[in-house]
Amino acid sequence: QVQLVESGGGLVQAGGSLRLSCAASGRTFSNYGMGWFRQAPGKEREFVAAISMSGFGTKYTDSVKGRFTISRDNAKNTVYLQMNTLKPEDTAVYSCAIKSGSWAIWTGKVDYWGQGTQVTVSS
Question: Which of 1, 57, 86, 123 is deepest in the core (most CB within 10 A)?
């Protein structure tokens, strides 16, 4: 059974940094695109970042470009999201997602979701 477990969330002041991790288990994920979404209270879930199977392709939503970096370690079946210069508007539950055979995570059509980790940025 596939499991995605996120970690690394927490409370940070504006301008600070956090690194999220999402560990996948249950199969080999080198042929899965991986990515992150977030959902703030009262808002719809939105795409944040995606990374291709090889790790060479990345895509970000405009609001995080230049501040967030997505990466993956296929040997560890893990995807990361390094978040720098955090802003209060980044406050949300961050969830990872994976998609077999494609890295078009931004479509929202994914195969598996993680439970999410809370990120809170204070002003």
Answer: 86
